[in-house]
Amino acid sequence: MRKRRLLTLILLSVLLVLSACGGTDSAAEDNSDEATESPKTGLNEITLEDVMAKKDNSEAFYVLIYDAKKEYIKSTKLLEAYDEAFKKEDMTVFHLNIRDANEQTVSRLDEEYESHSGSSHNPFMYGEIAVVHEGKISSPFDYYGESWNLNRLIGEVGSESDTFFDDNRNKTIKKSIQYSLDYTKDEEIELTY
Q: Does the predicted TM-score (pTM) go above 0.70?
């Protein structure tokens, strides 16, 4: 009887050790898959917290910042138009709708942006493609001395037949993309993903 109990305990101990080892390996594999997954060409959704973490980690990337209701984004085809334009330029860009973001965090980024840029053209107030690099957020529009208000443009689009695929708005999208590409080239910013 003692031998049987001892053998059962030893067998259970071995099974327990083996299952613990197997669980650790598969969990490590699952985590490494998530960590190495890179964003796709075109638009990729991101949270404000992730933008801040990447910024604080000195990563370099494009982020489209805008402020709009979800229903409005859908009806105006805002994201579809930008996604198509970014894919044509083979660009990987994150997008961030600050409509539902933490107001304190947005205010802090807004103030931080104004303190380092000295500009009144702010991507958090006006919306635009910004470039995150060297632990800061930069505006290609500010760099080229231009101003643009994506959030106002969003407000001007109003019906199903009036979308961001409109020729004039599409030209504006292409111009903003070109500013972003020129800025990263001029400043020799190597994007990381």
A: yes
